[in-house]
């Protein structure tokens, strides 16, 4: 379990994240939702130590993450941000192999190779493993990066808007894979989402942020209802039940 | 993978050939006189080449930019300023100018101290993007150059010639002892740096990915900056400002090897430097019969290559 306690981040005097306390339950998909500028990505970056928190603490299975060695932390928590610019030319296999760095520091063992193969198989990348990243479509690239994180084999996987710029087919594909990671392999997934319907259909728990504060935190059923969504988004959003899923019809509200 | 190994071997062979050519061509049996003098020069060129290749590749990786050289941090300008200050205040016959040992030690120490102060000051002021550091480097470097020009205008013309000697890299009169001192420092820096090669591979993936993969990004960047400054300081104090050269070999190495592995990239760039410096110096001596200096040729060729890189980058962006 990841416990976030009183976490704040200020840019100048403005609090982007203000005294946020949240529990991330193990072996569940937790979605962070909320309007633009609510502090979702900042919160995720602080939990994953990409940026330092100004106040508060993050406990990972009872250990304070600040005291942890970078390498140890990277074996337990992985993070993928939305844009990944790099100025080296890598093949998919090379990128996914980097996921094993915390375990083997660049000298891959047989076990590492096994993890890399598995991750690529999971993301359906084996038949193009030698293609270069800059020759791929946005969706394929995103899958390659997610494969890297899977190869890293951490208990906790944090993803910052992984569905950005993806079409419907690839979005659904990625969400299904995340579901399998949780159900089959017992991983814990935290994901920042913009489309609440993906959050509604695929997540176990939802944390809603607004203006740097947590406004709602609960199971998916507790959040996906018109009254809670009104509070989060200031919109009247009717909910329709289809194929056992709650769908928010926000397009013309 | 194997292709890269063959390419590396080709470079090593070429480097050995160019060194041998330089050492033994038209030696005419002068083993006692000419050979040791040539050996000192070859050693100095090899050391400089390795130091510059190494520091440039590191620097480009941490700045994520392939058309920068460490000279942007202002160390070269500081070196020329120092030489100008010595002549301006102490005169061209003062021990700091005449005695190469004193000059070497003073130059190295002041450049390293300057770099450390700059980094300390900048990293203390909180987390800033690396471009902020570069910007400060450019400003400080320009500031040094301006003072230098101002002082040089005031210097007696005869004294100015003394400064001018130091403004361009030259391998023509290098002190044998200094080569050993430089060798000591550079060897230590290389041994320390070799342990970070895998981390550098990860750094080239960008800050977020590097931290995700468990690399303490800020600490490593700081260490690599210091390492690169030490190498630049030593090579500049040994032969003069020649960092522009690193741009050529680093980029040639990226093109030639097409890998992300710094062990290969840096080794390749180092051997390319040796080939270019030793081979170039041989051409200067045998073809141009000393009518020009190596650094003029390097700046000429490097300038053309730099323009080519700029055009290429702007087209791909």
From TrEMBL, chain A:
Gene3D superfamilies: P-loop containing nucleotide triphosphate hydrolases
GO term, biological process aspect, one: iron ion transport
Membrane topology: Peripheral membrane protein
A molecular-function term among this protein's GO annotations: ATP binding
Keywords: ATP-binding, Cell membrane, Ion transport, Iron, Iron transport, Membrane, Nucleotide-binding, Transport
Compartments where located: Cell membrane
GO-annotated cellular components: plasma membrane
One Pfam assignment: ABC_tran
PANTHER family: IRON(3+)-HYDROXAMATE IMPORT ATP-BINDING PROTEIN FHUC, PETROBACTIN IMPORT ATP-BINDING PROTEIN YCLP
Record's protein name: ABC transporter ATP-binding protein
Protein species of origin: Savagea serpentis
Species lineage: Bacteria, Bacillati, Bacillota, Bacilli, Bacillales
Automatic annotation (TrEMBL), chain B:
Keywords: Cell membrane, Ion transport, Iron, Iron transport, Membrane, Transmembrane, Transmembrane helix, Transport
Gene Ontology BP, a term: siderophore-iron import into cell
Leader peptide range in chain numbering: none
Membrane-crossing segments per the record: 7-27, 39-57, 78-98, 104-123, 130-155, 178-197, 232-252, 264-284, 290-311
Gene Ontology MF terms: transmembrane transporter activity
Topology in the lipid bilayer: Multi-pass membrane protein
Pfam families to which the protein is assigned, alphabetical: FecCD
Cellular component GO terms held in the UniProt record: plasma membrane
Protein's cellular compartments: Cell membrane
Record bears the keyword Iron: yes
Keyword Iron among UniProt keywords: yes
SUPFAM superfamilies xrefs: ABC transporter involved in vitamin B12 uptake, BtuC (SSF81345)
Primary location group: membrane
Entry-linked PANTHER family: FERRIC ENTEROBACTIN TRANSPORT SYSTEM PERMEASE PROTEIN (PTHR30472), PETROBACTIN IMPORT SYSTEM PERMEASE PROTEIN YCLO (PTHR30472:SF19)
Protein family according to the UniProt entry: Belongs to the binding-protein-dependent transport system permease family. FecCD subfamily.
Protein known as: Iron chelate uptake ABC transporter family permease subunit
Organism of origin: Savagea serpentis
């Amino acid at each position: 379990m990841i416990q976030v306690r009183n976490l704040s981040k200020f840019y100048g005097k403005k609090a982007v994240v203000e005294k946020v306390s949240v529990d991330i339950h193990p072996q569940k998909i937790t979605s962070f939702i909320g309007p633009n500028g609510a502090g979702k990505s900042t919160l995720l970056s602080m939990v994953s130590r990409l940026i330092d928190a100004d106040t508060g603490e993050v406990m990972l299975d009872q250990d304070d993450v600040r005291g942890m060695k970078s390498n140890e932390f990277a074996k337990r928590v992985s993070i993928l941000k939305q844009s990944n610019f790099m100025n080296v030319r890598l093949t998919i296999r090379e990128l996914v192999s980097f996921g094993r760095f915390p375990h083997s520091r660049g000298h891959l063992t047989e076990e590492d190779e096994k993890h890399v193969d598995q991750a690529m198989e999971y993301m359906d990348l084996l038949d193009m493993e030698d293609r270069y990243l800059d020759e791929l479509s946005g969706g394929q690239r995103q899958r390659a990066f997610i494969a890297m994180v899977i190869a890293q084999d951490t208990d906790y996987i944090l993803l910052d808007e992984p569905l950005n710029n993806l079409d419907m087919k690839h979005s659904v594909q990625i969400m299904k894979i995340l579901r399998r990671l949780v159900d089959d392999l017992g991983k814990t997934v935290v994901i920042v989402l913009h489309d609440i319907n993906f959050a509604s259909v695929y997540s176990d728990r939802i944390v809603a942020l607004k203006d740097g504060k947590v406004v709602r935190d609960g199971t998916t059923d507790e959040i996906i209802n018109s009254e809670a969504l009104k509070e989060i988004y200031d919109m009247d959003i009717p909910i329709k039940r289809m194929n056992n899923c709650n769908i928010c019809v926000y397009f013309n509200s | 993978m194997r292709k890269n190994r063959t390419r590396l071997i080709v470079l090593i062979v070429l480097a050995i050939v160019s060194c041998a050519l330089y050492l033994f061509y038209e030696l005419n049996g002068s083993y006692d006189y000419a050979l040791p003098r040539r050996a000192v020069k070859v050693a100095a060129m090899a050391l400089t080449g390795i130091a510059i290749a190494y520091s440039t590749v590191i620097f480009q990786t941490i700045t994520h930019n392939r058309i920068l050289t460490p000279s942007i941090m202002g160390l070269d300008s500081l070196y020329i300023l120092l030489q100008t200050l010595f002549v301006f205040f102490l005169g061209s016959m003062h021990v700091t100018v005449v005695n190469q040992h004193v000059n070497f030690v003073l130059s190295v120490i002041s450049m390293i101290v300057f770099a450390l102060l700059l980094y300390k000051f900048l990293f203390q002021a909180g987390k800033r993007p690396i471009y902020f550091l570069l910007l400060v480097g450019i400003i400080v470097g320009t500031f040094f150059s301006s003072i230098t020009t101002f002082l040089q205008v005031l210097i007696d013309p005869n004294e100015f010639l003394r400064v001018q000697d130091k403004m361009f890299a030259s391998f023509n009169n290098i002190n044998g002892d200094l080569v050993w001192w430089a060798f000591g420092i550079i060897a230590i820096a290389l041994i320390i740096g070799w342990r970070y090669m895998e981390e550098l591979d990860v750094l080239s993936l960008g800050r977020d990915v590097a931290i995700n993969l468990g690399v303490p990004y800020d600490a490593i960047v700081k260490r690599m900056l210091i390492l690169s400054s030490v190498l630049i300081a030593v090579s500049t104090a040994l032969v003069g400002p020649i960092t522009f050269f690193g741009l050529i070999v680093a980029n040639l190495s990226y093109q030639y090897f097409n890998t992300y592995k710094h062990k290969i990239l840096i080794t390749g760039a180092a051997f390319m430097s040796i080939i270019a410096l030793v081979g170039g110096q041989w051409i200067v001596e045998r073809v141009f019969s000393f009518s020009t200096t190596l650094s003029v040729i390097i700046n000429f060729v490097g300038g053309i290559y730099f323009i080519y890189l700029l055009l290429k980058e702007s087209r791909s962006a």
